[in-house]
Design goal:
Blueprint (H helix, E strand, L loop, with lengths): L4 E7 L5 H14 L4 E6 L18 H6 L6 H4 L1 E2 L5 E4 L12 H12 L2 H5 L3 E7 L9 H4 L5 E6 L3 H17 L6 E8 L4 H13 L4 E5 L3 H8 L4 H4 L4 H14 L12 H30 L7
Parallel strand pairs: 1-5, 1-6, 2-4, 2-5, 6-7, 7-8
Antiparallel strand pairs: 3-4
Amino acid sequence: MPKARNIAIYGKGGIGKSTTSSNLSAAFSDLGLKVMQIGCDPKSDSTNNLRGGKSIPSVLDALRSRKRIEIEDIVHDGFNGIKCIEAGGPEPGVGCAGRGIITAIELLKQKNVFEEFKPDIVIYDVLGDVVCGGFSIPIREGVAEQVYTVASSDFMAIYAANNLFKGIRKYANSGGALFSGIIANSMNQPIQKDIINDFAKHTQTTVAGYVPRSLDVTRSELRGQTVIEHAPDSEQAELYRELARSILNNDQKYVPAPLESDDLKVWAESWSDTLLRNRENEEKIKTTENHIVVYPA
């Protein structure tokens, strides 16, 4: 069978990683591809919006049940036939959260899940606040051929992306996955794009696409759906389709050049100064516009 394209999408918690992953899965499916999404976050909520807001039992849940595990116990149908899997996490206070990824991938291989469903695209949705232990498996073991990160112009999102770049660089020489681009999320102002573009320039990376913040996403997720399903004719839905097409056509795989901690701090402070100057200039313009000049009669 043709080899599936395995893509890992990383990003810090709350950055929109799972929203992006689910909408991309829906977009790939909408383009006629067979898709599988594997949630690698211990919260096990990666695939909720592909299933009407409903959660599914995770691989670790199935293993804890101590019964004989069948494929249907861990692989569930989502929107447009997308196969949904959640790795899951340990019981609270017990074990390593990343262990679920290792266990899940081992079990999926044992059960010949990929041979059974023959997906064209497999998306691994991975928590990217730290790139260690099980969370590094898609990179370290070469499970994914291409890695993307979802990042905004906020410093902590950029900080997490920079750490991801360090992880990719560390494992690159031992067969690890390579980087393919930044998915710039919440891009509603030109200055936000400027910050991401400059970060990409300094780390010798590329930007795969820009995704603005949209109320269509909010409305869709309140219904437990992706934008592709809830608002298929919306501008935001077409944007996700364009991003999906771009990723399909993107064969770039390379090692990033992450900034060292001190260099990242200097870079961030320079942008802080730029933002302050821009705000002062805007205030001056507003003051000038609101100033009324009265000429003598």
